[in-house]
Design goal:
The strands form six sheets. This protein has a two-stranded antiparallel sheet. With 1453 residues, the chain is mainly alpha-helical. The longest helix has 60 residues. The two termini are 75 Å apart.
Length: 1453
C-alpha cells in the first residue's frame, strides 16, 4: 500500500486497500468460518453416535450422597462405591478429604508458581545450580511427593490411579523428582515443574467447569489435533520429495526443515517468503504449478482447518437439547427484574425520619381548628370518585354502553359513587355466570370437533396429501382437546389399548408443557409483584420525605421549571405510524428516515452533532499544531464545553443528579459523561502551555481523547454493542486466564532454559563474549536486493560502531515479564519465525520444538477459543445460544421472511402480441444463462492490463463495447416486455439499467477521448457488471445476501470499532507523535497526525507487524534525545505507555471486536444455508407465495385489502394449500386473524406471510416460552370469536326459518280468507257468464319468486368471512330479519306478506253446490312465536357483546 501511495494518488490507494481488507479479510474470509461451522453442526447431527452423547462430569460408577458441609448445610457429593480404600488410619483419610488440606496444597502450588516466576538471569558468572530457587524447588518437590504418598496410602494405589487428576499429579511427581537431580536441572524436565500451575485451575469452580466443557470431551478436539498433525506430516513428506533436489533451496533439504516450512505456511507468518524462495529456485517453467500447490495448501490450512477448530469449540460449548428448555426458563427468571428493593442511592432516604408533606384546609366552614393532613391523602380523596368512575366505565359491558348513554350520564351526575358500586356488584355476578356458560359452550364445541376428527368423517374422500397448514391445525386441535380430560375420556371409549396409550402420552406431554407455562406465568407475576413493590416503596419515600425526587434537593417535584426541562430533555421526533381511527399501520414513504430521526431525542441529536464537530476539530491537532496555541481549534473546545454544560444542567434539573429515580448518574454511562465533562472543563480552564512528557498534563490530554466515547452513551444501539461486549466478560476473562496460564508455563520454562543464552555480539564475526569489544565497520545498503558495482579498491559506504554483547532487539527471556511479552507477540502469530530462528541458532535445533508447541497450542486452540467464546457469548446475548433445533429454525425462518419481498415482476401481457413474445424470451432460462455467460466473458477481458500505450488494449476495449451494446439490447427487450413502470419495480433491473447507462456513457467518452481515464472507467464498469451475476445463481445469491445482511447488522459494531480506533488515534498523537523513525515507524507509518495514526492503527488491526511498531514506540535514551520541558520537543518513546497502548488495542480490536463480526456472519449465514429438510418453509414455498401475491396485488403496492386475503388463501397450492372440504374451520381462523389484527384495513405482504408461518409450524416446539404463551392466547381468542360468530349465524338462520314459517302461515290464512270471501260474494251474486280471471296475486307471486334471492344462483366464489362486506348485507337490509344491537334483539314491526300459489277453486251451480278447499298442515303460529322468543332470550343471556356493523359479516358453518 505504501508503494501505491508513492506511485498513485493517495485517496486511490487508501480506498482500494482498505475496502480490499474489509471485504476479503473481514467479511468474505469469515464466511468460510460460517460454512465450516454450519457444515460441522450438520455432520454432527447425522453422526451423533460417532461422537457419543454428552456425558456429565460425574461418572456412572459413582453415586451421590448427602454430606453436611462446614456451614451446617447439606450438599450432594459424588462417592465412588467401588473405589478401594487404603490402609491409612481414619484420621488421615478424613484429613486428606478435608477442604483445609485441599486449600493448603493449592496454596503451596501457588507459592511454587510465584517462586518460579521470580526467577531471572543474574549474569554469566553466577552459579545457577545451587541458588535459592534450586533449594526452593527441592523443598516443594519433597512436599508434593509426600502429598502423593499420603493419597496413595489413604486411597490405595488402585483407587489413586483410577482418577485422571491423580494420574496427572503422579506424572508431575515423577518428572519433578527427576528434575531436581543436578545433572537434569534446567533441562527438558523443567516442563514438569512449570506444569504445576495447571493444578491451580481447581481453585475456581467456574474455571474448572469451563476447562472441562472445552477439553473434557477430548474425542473431537483430540481427533482434530491428530488430523492436523497428520496433515502436516503428510504435506511435509510430499514437499520434501518435490523440492529436496532443488539447488540453492535449503528449506526442504531434510524432513525437520520441510516440517517447519509447512508449519510456517499454516500459521500465515511469512508464508509468502517460503513460496517466493521456492519459485525462484524451481525456475519459470514449474513456477505456476508450485504457486498453485502452496496457495491451495495455504487456503485449506487457514480457511478450513482453523475454522474446524472454531467449529469443534463451539460444539463443545453447545448444550444438549433437553437442557436448553430448562436453561431458557432459568434465563427468563434471571432476566426478569424480580428485585423488590430500590437501588441503594434511593434507599438512603429510609435512614432519615419520615416528614410527610402536610397541607391545611382553609375553605371549611367550622368553628373548630382543623389540623393539617397529608397532601397525598387529600389528592387521593379528591381523585377517588374520578378513579372509581373510570374504572367502572372500563368494566361495564360494552353492549349496553350506547343504548344507555343518556341514562348513565344522568345517574353519574346525581350520585356517582353509590351508583357505580351497585352496578359493579351486579355486573360481577352476571360476568361470572356468562363466563361459566361460555366455557361450557367452548367445551362442547371442542368435543364435537374432536369427535368429527376421530369418527373418520372424511374416509369416503380420495386420499390426498395434507398441507403443512392442515397438519399443524389438526395437531393444535388435538392438543386443545387435552385441556378437558373428561371430554377426552368420553370420546376415547372403544379405542384400542395402543391408541389409549398414545393419548395418555400426549396428555402427559401436554401436562408438562402446561407446567412450563405456569412457571413462565409465575415468573411474570413475580416480576409484576416486584415492580409493584418497588413502586409502592417509591411512593412511600415520595410521600414521607419531601427531598425525595427533588433535583439537587432544590427544585420541586412539580415545579414549572422542572417540567420545562423535562419537556426539553424528552422531546423527540415521533411520526405517527398508525391510523388513529382503524389502528392500522401506515406505510410511509420515508419511514426509514423517520425511524432515524426518532432514534434519540432532539437534545441528544444536538449533542451528537456537537461531539462529531469537536472530534473533527481534534483531527487537526498535532504535536506541531496544538490546541493550546491555535485559537481556531479552541473554538470547538469552547462550543463543546458550553453545549455539554447546558445539556447536563437540563438533564440534572429534569431527572436529578444521583438521588432520584431517573438520575443522570445511575449507570456507567452517566459516570462516563460526567468524567468526560470534568476532563474537558479542567483542560479548558487550565490550558497548559508547556506539557512535559510523562506528566499529569500529558495524562490529562490523553484522557481528553476519550471524548468520542460520548457517542456510545447518546445512541441506544451503541450502548447495546457495549452491553454485548461486557455481558460475556466472564467467559472472555476465563479464556484470558487460560491463555495467561499457558504463557506463564512456557515463560517460566523459557526463563530457566534460555535466560542469558540469546545474547550475541553485534559483530557477526565475533563468537565469544570475551572478544566482543572495540569497534567495527558496518556497511550501509539502500536495499537488500540492490548490488552496487564497486570499482577496484572502492569500499561500500558505511560507518564505525562499537561492539556490544546484547539480546535481540525485540525480545529476550531474561525474566518472566520479558518472556511473557515475547510470547504474547508470538501468540498473535507475529514475529514467531524470528524467535524460532534465534532460539535454533543460539541454543540448539532441539529447542525449536518449544516455540512450535507454543504456537500450535496458542494459535490452534487459544485464539480459536477466543473466537468460539465471543461467538457463543454473542449468541447467548442474542438469545440464540439456548435455542433448540426447532426454535433456531423458527428464528431463521422469521429472519428470512423479513428479508423476503414481493416479486417485482409484472404479469405476462394478456394478448399474444409483440410484448408477450418479448416477455417469453426474456423470462426463458436459456436467455438468462446466455446473459450470465456474456457477463463472465466480458469480465475475462480484465485479465490483461488495459494500458493506453499497449496496442492490445484497443481490441479489448472494442470487444467490451460490443458486449455493452448487447446488454443495452437486453435492457431494451426487458423494458418492452415489462413496460417501463414494471421494469423499474425490480431493484435488480434498476442496477442493470444503472450499469448499462454507465456503459453507454463510457462508450461515448471512450471514442471521444481515448485516454487512460476512459480505460479505467471501462474497467470499473466491467467490475460493476460482474456483481450483477451474483443475483442470478442461488448459491452466489445466498453468499451475497450473507455478506450484505452482515454489513447491515454489523453497522453499529463497525461504528463502535471506528470510535475506539479514533480514541486510540488521538491518544497516539499525544504519546508517540514525535517518536523518531525506526524499523517500522517511517514517513508513511507514524503518529504525527490523527489521519496517519488512524492508518497505522488500521494496519495494526490486520496484525501486520504491530509488535515492531510497538517496539519502535518504546525507544529510550541513549537511542533518542530526551527533553523534559515539553513532549513535542523529544523524539523518545514511552515504554509503559506503548506496552499498555498497543496490547490493549490489539486485544480489544483483534480478539473481541473482529470476532463479533465473525459471530454476525455465522448467524446470518445460518439464515440462508439450510437444506430442504431443515427449513420450515422452503424456498419453493416462499416463491409460490410470492407468485400468488403478485397475482392478487395487481397494483404492486405491497398491500392488499383484508377482504382479498381469502382469495389469496384459496389460490395457494402445495404445502400452503387450505382445503375447504377438510379445513374450513382453519380457513375461517386465518381470515378472522387478518381481520382482527388489522381492524379490517389493508394487510401487507409480511403480515400474511407471518400468519402463514405461524400456522405452518408446531408452535409448541418452535416458539420460545413467552412468545408461545402470547401466540396460544391469540389463537385461543380467535377460536372463541369464530365459534361465537358461527353460533350467532346459526341462531340467525334458525330465527329466519321460524320467521319465514310465521309469514307463510299468515299469508296462507290471508289468501284462504280472501278466497272464501270471493266464493261467498260469488255465491250471493252469481255471475251471468262464467269467466276465469287470473289472480293478481299470481303476478305478485311470480315477481316475488323471480326476485327471491337464491343461494345457488348467488353463490360466491369463496366461503364468506368477516371480510365479506356484502355477504350478508341483503339479510341485514331485509325488513323481516331480526337485527341485534347492543345486546338487544329488534324484531320488525310488520312483516311483509308473501303471496303463495293457491289452487283454483271451481264453483258450479246446478241444483247443488260443492266447495273444494285446500287445507295446509302447518305449525301453529303461537308455537313458532314462543320458540323464537325462547331462543332469543336464551342467546341474549348467553352472549352480551357489542355488535357493530362488522357483526353483520358472519361466518357460515
Amino acid at each position: 500500500m505504501y508503494r501505491a501511495i508513492d506511485s498513485f494518488p493517495r485517496w486511490r490507494s487508501y480506498f482500494y486497500f482498505i475496502t480490499l481488507i474489509f471485504f476479503l479479510a473481514w467479511l468474505v474470509k469469515n464466511v468460510f468460518i460460517a460454512v465450516i461451522i454450519e457444515t460441522f453442526a450438520e455432520i454432527r447431527v447425522q453422526f451423533q453416535q460417532m461422537w457419543g452423547s454428552r456425558s456429565s462430569t460425574t461418572s456412572t460408577a459413582t453415586t451421590q450422597m448427602f454430606h453436611e458441609d462446614a456451614a451446617g448445610g447439606w450438599q450432594l457429593v459424588a462417592v465412588d462405591v467401588n473405589k478401594p480404600q487404603g490402609r491409612a488410619p481414619a484420621c488421615l483419610q478424613k484429613m486428606m478429604r478435608s477442604s483445609v488440606f485441599h486449600m493448603f496444597i493449592l496454596s503451596m502450588v501457588a507459592v511454587d508458581v510465584i517462586v518460579a516466576a521470580s526467577n531471572y538471569y543474574k549474569g554469566e558468572n553466577f552459579k545457577r545450580q545451587y541458588d535459592e530457587f534450586y533449594l526452593a524447588e527441592v523443598a516443594f518437590t519433597v512436599l508434593f511427593d509426600l502429598e502423593a504418598l499420603l493419597k496413595i496410602w489413604c486411597l490405595g494405589f488402585t483407587g489413586y490411579i483410577s482418577s485422571s487428576l491423580h494420574k496427572f499429579e503422579l506424572l508431575l511427581v515423577i518428572g519433578t523428582t527427576l528434575h531436581i537431580y543436578p545433572d537434569l536441572y534446567h533441562s527438558q524436565f523443567t516442563y514438569f515443574q512449570v506444569l504445576r500451575v495447571v493444578r491451580l485451575i481447581k481453585i475456581s469452580p467456574a474455571l474448572e467447569d469451563f476447562v472441562y466443557k472445552i477439553f473434557g470431551p477430548g474425542k473431537k478436539l483430540g481427533s482434530l489435533v491428530v488430523f492436523t498433525a497428520s496433515l502436516l506430516i503428510v504435506m511435509s513428506a510430499i514437499s520434501l520429495q518435490m523440492f529436496c533436489f532443488v539447488e540453492e533451496l535449503d528449506r526442504f533439504t531434510t524432513f525437520p526443515r520441510a516440517f517447519m516450512s509447512m508449519f510456517q505456511i499454516l500459521t500465515q507468518e511469512g508464508w509468502v517468503d517460503v513460496m517466493d524462495q521456492t519459485l525462484n529456485a524451481v525456475g519459470h517453467m514449474w513456477a505456476p504449478v508450485v504457486a498453485i500447490y502452496f496457495i491451495l495448501y495455504h487456503l485449506f490450512a487457514t480457511l478450513i482447518l482453523l475454522s474446524l477448530f472454531v467449529a469443534v469449540i463451539l460444539d463443545n460449548l453447545e448444550l444438549d437439547e433437553d437442557l436448553k428448555k430448562l436453561k431458557q426458563l432459568k434465563q427468563s427468571e434471571a432476566n426478569a427484574d424480580t428485585k423488590e428493593k430500590l437501588p441503594l442511592r434511593l434507599r438512603i432516604f429510609e435512614k432519615f425520619p419520615n416528614r410527610p408533606q402536610m397541607v391545611k384546609i382553609s375553605k371549611l366552614p367550622s368553628d373548630f381548628t382543623v389540623p393539617k393532613i397529608r397532601e397525598s391523602f387529600m389528592k387521593q380523596f379528591i381523585d377517588r370518585q374520578q378513579q372509581d368512575t373510570s374504572c367502572l366505565l372500563r368494566r361495564l359491558p360494552s353492549a349496553s354502553s350506547s343504548s344507555c348513554d343518556h341514562s348513565k350520564k344522568s345517574a353519574i351526575e346525581e350520585n356517582k359513587y353509590i351508583d357505580q358500586k351497585l352496578r359493579k356488584s351486579v355486573f360481577s355476578i352476571r360476568a361470572r355466570n356468562l363466563l361459566e356458560k361460555e366455557t361450557a359452550i367452548n367445551k362442547i364445541l371442542r368435543a364435537c370437533t374432536r369427535q368429527r376428527m376421530l369418527s373418520g368423517s372424511f374416509e369416503g374422500q380420495p386420499a390426498k396429501e395434507r398441507s403443512i397448514l392442515s397438519v399443524q391445525h389438526h395437531i393444535r386441535q388435538e392438543r386443545r382437546s387435552l385441556r378437558h380430560g373428561s371430554n377426552s375420556q368420553r370420546i376415547s371409549r372403544g379405542k384400542s389399548l395402543e391408541t389409549l396409550t398414545q393419548d395418555h402420552s400426549n396428555t402427559v406431554r401436554y401436562r408438562n408443557a402446561q407446567r412450563e407455562d405456569s412457571e413462565i406465568k409465575m415468573i411474570q407475576e413475580k416480576k409484576e409483584q416486584a415492580e409493584m413493590k418497588r413502586k409502592v416503596q417509591e411512593e412511600e419515600l415520595r410521600e414521607n420525605h419531601p427531598y425525595f425526587d427533588k433535583p439537587l434537593f432544590i427544585v420541586g417535584r412539580e415545579h414549572k421549571f422542572r417540567n420545562f426541562c423535562r419537556v426539553v430533555v424528552r422531546a423527540r421526533f415521533n411520526a405517527s405510524k398508525t391510523d388513529p381511527v382503524t389502528g392500522a399501520v401506515k406505510n410511509t414513504k420515508y419511514h426509514q428516515l423517520y425511524d432515524l430521526l426518532g432514534l434519540v431525542t432532539y437534545l441528544d441529536w444536538v449533542m451528537i452533532i456537537v461531539t462529531i464537530c469537536s472530534c473533527i476539530s481534534m483531527m487537526f491537532e498535532s504535536p506541531f499544531r496544538r490546541v493550546m496555541h491555535a485559537p481556531t481549534l479552541q473554538i470547538a473546545e469552547y462550543v463543546f464545553v458550553i453545549f455539554m454544560s447546558i445539556e447536563l444542567n437540563l438533564k440534572i434539573m429534569a431527572d436529578g443528579l444521583f438521588f432520584t429515580p431517573t438520575a443522570v448518574i445511575r449507570d456507567f454511562g452517566g459516570v462516563m459523561d460526567i468524567f468526560i465533562y470534568l476532563v474537558s472543563l479542567i483542560f479548558l480552564c487550565w490550558m497548559p502551555q508547556n506539557v512535559p512528557a510523562k506528566s499529569g498534563a500529558q495524562l490529562l490530554m490523553v484522557l481528553r481523547c476519550l471524548r468520542p466515547l460520548r457517542i456510545f452513551k447518546l445512541v441506544p444501539q451503541m450502548r447495546k454493542v457495549v452491553r454485548e461486549l461486557f455481558s460475556g466478560f466472564k467467559e472472555i476473562f476465563l479464556v484470558s486466564i487460560l491463555l495467561l496460564t499457558l504463557m506463564l508455563v512456557f515463560a517460566s520454562f523459557g526463563v530457566q532454559l534460555f535466560a542469558g543464552k540469546l545474547a550475541k555480539c553485534n559483530d557477526p564475526h565475533i563468537i565469544s563474549r570475551e572478544d566482543c569489544h572495540g569497534i567495527f565497520r558496518i556497511n550501509v545498503s539502500v536495499s537488500k536486493n540492490l548490488n552496487l558495482k564497486l570499482r577496484p579498491g572502492e569500499k561500500k559506504p558505511g560507518f564505525w560502531v562499537p561492539r556490544v554483547w546484547a539480546n535481540p532487539r525485540n525480545f529476550n527471556f531474561d525474566n518472566v515479564g520479558n518472556a511473557m511479552l515475547a510470547l504474547f507477540e508470538v501468540l498473535s502469530l507475529k514475529g514467531w519465525v524470528e524467535v524460532r530462528d534465534v532460539i535454533i541458532h543460539r541454543v540448539g535445533p532441539i529447542h525449536g520444538i518449544y516455540i512450535h508447541v507454543f504456537v500450535f497450542l496458542g494459535c490452534m486452540i487459544g485464539l480459536t477459543l477466543f473466537v468460539g467464546v465471543v461467538i457463543a457469548n454473542f449468541n447467548e446475548n442474542k438469545g440464540t445460544a439456548l435455542l433448540t433445533v426447532d426454535q433456531r429454525r423458527w428464528e431463521d425462518l422469521k429472519s428470512r421472511l423479513k428479508i423476503a419481498q414481493p416479486l417485482h415482476l409484472p404479469p405476462r401481457p394478456d394478448n399474444d402480441g409483440f410484448r408477450a413474445k418479448m416477455y417469453d424470451i426474456t423470462q426463458h432460462p436459456f436467455f438468462k444463462r446466455t446473459i450470465a455467460v456474456l457477463v463472465l466473458a466480458q469480465s475475462v477481458l480484465l485479465s490483461v492490463k488495459w494500458d493506453a500505450a499497449d496496442p492490445v488494449t484497443v481490441p479489448l476495449a472494442t470487444m467490451s463495447v460490443v458486449f455493452t451494446f448487447i446488454f443495452v439490447l437486453e435492457v431494451t427487450m426487458k423494458i418492452i416486455a415489462m413496460s417501463p413502470s414494471g421494469f423499474w419495480q425490480s431493484r435488480r433491473n434498476r442496477y442493470d439499467l444503472l450499469v448499462t447507462s454507465l456503459g453507454v456513457i463510457w462508450v461515448i467518452l471512450h471514442f471521444a477521448l481515448l485516454n487512460a481515464y476512459t480505460y479505467m472507467m471501462g474497467a470499473c464498469v466491467i467490475v460493476f457488471r460482474f456483481f450483477s451475476i451474483c443475483g442470478k445463481h442461488v448459491t452466489l445469491k445466498m453468499l451475497l445476501l450473507t455478506v450484505v445482511v452482515s454489513m447491515y447488522k454489523s453497522f453499529f459494531i463497525i461504528v463502535g470499532m471506528f470510535l475506539l480506533l479514533l480514541c486510540y488515534a488521538f491518544a497516539g498523537v499525544v504519546l508517540f507523535g514525535t517518536v523518531k523513525y525506526g524499523e517500522n515507524i517511517n514517513r508513511h507509518a507514524n503518529f504525527s497526525s490523527a489521519g496517519k495514526a488512524i492508518t497505522v492503527l488500521f494496519r495494526i488491526v490486520t496484525g501486520e507487524d504491530w509488535n515492531k511498531i510497538m517496539h519502535d514506540c518504546m525507544v529510550q535514551p541513549p537511542f533518542c534525545t530526551p527533553d523534559n520541558s515539553t513532549y513535542w520537543k523529544t523524539d523518545c518513546g514511552n515504554y509503559a505507555g506503548a506496552l499498555m497502548y498497543f496490547c490493549s488495542f490489539y486485544v480489544i480490536i483483534a480478539y473481541i471486536m473482529l470476532n463479533l463480526l465473525v459471530a454476525i456472519i455465522v448467524e446470518n449465514f445460518s439464515l440462508f444455508y439450510s437444506t430442504e429438510e431443515d427449513q420450515l418453509l422452503s424456498y419453493n414455498d416462499l416463491r409460490h407465495f410470492q407468485i400468488i401475491w403478485n397475482m392478487v396485488d395487481d397494483k404492486r403496492e405491497g398491500v392488499i385489502p383484508s377482504f382479498r386475503v381469502k382469495f389469496l388463501l384459496r389460490l395457494l397450492r402445495g404445502r400452503l394449500e387450505v382445503d375447504l372440504d377438510k379445513d374450513k374451520l382453519l380457513f375461517k381462523h386465518m381470515c378472522y386473524e387478518m381481520e382482527r389484527l388489522h381492524n379490517g384495513g389493508d394487510v401487507t405482504f409480511h403480515d400474511v406471510l407471518s400468519m402463514l408461518s405461524y400456522r405452518s409450524v408446531d408452535i409448541r416446539k418452535s416458539l420460545q416460552l413467552e412468545e408461545l404463551l402470547a401466540r396460544e392466547q391469540l389463537e385461543y381468542t380467535i377460536e372463541e370469536e369464530v365459534a361465537k360468530q358461527t353460533i350467532r349465524m346459526w341462531l340467525k338462520k334458525c330465527l329466519k326459518r321460524i320467521r319465514a314459517k310465521q309469514q307463510q302461515s299468515c299469508s296462507i290464512i290471508h289468501s284462504l280468507r280472501e278466497s272464501q270471501q270471493q266464493e261467498l260474494s260469488r255465491f250471493l251474486n252469481p255471475p251471468s257468464i262464467e269467466t276465469t280471471q287470473p289472480s293478481e296475486d299470481m303476478n305478485a307471486i311470480n315477481q316475488d319468486n323471480s326476485a327471491q334471492p337464491e343461494t345457488s344462483s348467488q353463490q360466491q366464489l369463496l366461503s364468506p368471512t368477516l371480510s365479506d362486506r356484502g355477504g350478508y348485507r341483503q339479510d341485514s337490509a331485509d325488513a323481516g330479519k331480526p337485527q341485534r344491537k347492543f345486546g338487544q334483539w329488534r324484531l320488525p314491526s310488520a312483516p311483509k306478506p308473501i303471496s303463495h300459489s293457491v289452487s283454483s277453486v271451481n264453483l258450479r251451480f246446478g241444483g247443488r253446490s260443492t266447495m273444494k278447499s285446500v287445507v295446509c298442515k302447518m305449525n301453529p303460529m303461537s308455537d313458532a312465536a314462543s320458540c323464537g322468543s325462547e331462543v332469543k332470550k336464551w342467546w341474549t343471556r348467553q352472549l352480551t357483546v357489542e355488535s357493530d356493523e362488522s357483526g353483520e359479516d358472519l361466518l357460515d358453518i
